[in-house]
Amino acid sequence: MEISSLKNIPYSVLDLATVLDGYTAADTFKTSLELAQQSDALGYTRYWFAEHHNMAGVASSAPSLLIGFIAGGTTRIRVGSGGIMLPNHAPLIVAEQFGTLASLYPNRIDLGLGRAPGTDQVTAMAIRGENFNSAHSFPRDVDRLHQLFSVDNRYSTVRAIPGEGLTIPIWILGSSTDSARLAAEKGLPYAFASHFAPAYFEQAISIYRNNFKPSQFLEEPYVMACVNVVAADTDAEAERLSSSVKRMFLGVITGKRELLKPAVENINQHWDQLEKEAVEQMLYYSFIGGKDTIKQNLEEFVSKYGVNEIMSTSHIYNHQAKLHSNKLFAEVMN
């Protein structure tokens, strides 16, 4: 009897707090809570939010607030950031915020860190001001966070209260090879954004594994891959539902970002051949189909890359269809 390579792999959710056409951010937060509660019951390991700014269709500009909201409405699942864009914030403020979250919800909070601005350059300037080039301080700021969380920091002039002495797992996020080297050097778990940056995935995780240095946080490399998932009862229905995420990425490459649109019967009416190829390249690591199709493709993916954890993100307009997709994906992973 064949033993699924997915059996012992943790599975998690990345929620971009996508705003649907015809709805508001307040509606998004309600449906996020429902999805998180379902994920909690279905055995998902984590539920993460990403930091984005100045995007009409993405309501996760304040992930630490959303993490508290979701953690308060769930019981078991780990809740965290995928990620906090650290150059946008002083490490002390991040330490205090996540120290507060970890005090409220012990052993359930993750802190994923990225170095990108999570927005356009003009908005990044508005956020960072004179610290516009602070991405170069990212490695030092990661060290500073570890120091602020340490027990030894109680002797320092500047302390994170709460935060000091708490165990809050720090992850390094990446969409290129730079963060892979940093995660390896620091001996930290590595989460790659293969759901929108597939080009560097293979190279980045290879660099991470080949250069990994064991640390007090992690003895061996740990890779989490974030992928797009649209699951349905049939391959045809999943393809139809996936037209929403394809139109969303079309907006990214054309610069015409909109709220998430309902599924359409014929996606080819909405793009030309070059646009189609560009979108499909960005969505290369997407698992779209019925359970059997997704299971086969996901097993091939896990076998090829040996990832330790899968994080799914699902841009599906119909909320009931999204909940159903989330349920089917859990069944595939089990």
From TrEMBL:
Top-level taxon: Bacteria
Pfam families found in the cross-reference section: Bac_luciferase
Domain Luciferase-like per the UniProt entry, residue ranges: 17-302
Family to which this protein belongs: To bacterial alkanal monooxygenase alpha and beta chains.
Protein name: Luciferase-like monooxygenase
Gene Ontology molecular-function annotations: oxidoreductase activity, acting on paired donors, with incorporation or reduction of molecular oxygen
GO CC terms of this entry: cytosol
